[in-house]
């Protein structure tokens, strides 16, 4: 496999579970099983559907805006703003919330790829597996 270049404006998947504008740029559907890069815009007042990555850590870098990350597993809520990186450990139920009156733009994603979640939402076939 060779180096490839992807652009945020031509994602191969959009996932409403994350936001109205969640673009999957580098993910298993584009051939990457370990490195993932999503580009996500949350409008003011919008938030993710609470979810868990059962086999993956999630790292989210905030490019613009401010909001809150809700950790449902540990019953905590943490504020963040542009320039912050949010890390969600494996198995923690969470949601990102644009609850500070402004939108949020972020990049990041679960690593390794959250294959169980992608199968559950129909983005990958039930028999999909990493090569090798």
Automatic annotation (TrEMBL):
Domain named Cupin type-2: residues: 39-99
SUPFAM superfamilies attached to this UniProt entry: RmlC-like cupins
InterPro entries reported for this sequence: Cupin_2, RmlC-like_jellyroll, RmlC_Cupin_sf
Protein name, per record: Cupin domain-containing protein
The species this protein was found in: Methylobacterium terricola
Organism lineage: Bacteria, Pseudomonadati, Pseudomonadota, Alphaproteobacteria, Hyphomicrobiales
């Amino acid at each position: 496999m060779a180096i490839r270049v992807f652009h945020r404006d031509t994602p191969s998947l959009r996932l409403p579970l994350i936001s109205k504008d969640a673009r999957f740029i580098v993910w298993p559907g584009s051939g990457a099983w370990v490195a993932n890069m999503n580009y996500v815009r949350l409008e003011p007042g919008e938030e993710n559907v609470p979810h868990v990555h059962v086999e993956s850590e999630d790292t989210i870098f905030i490019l613009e805006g401010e909001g809150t990350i809700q950790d449902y597993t540990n019953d905590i809520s943490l504020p963040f703003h542009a320039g912050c990186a949010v890390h969600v450990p494996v198995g923690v139920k969470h949601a990102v919330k644009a609850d500070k009156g402004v939108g949020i733009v972020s990049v990041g994603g679960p690593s390794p790829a959250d294959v169980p979640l992608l199968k559950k939402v129909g983005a990958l076939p039930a028999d999909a597996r990493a090569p090798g």
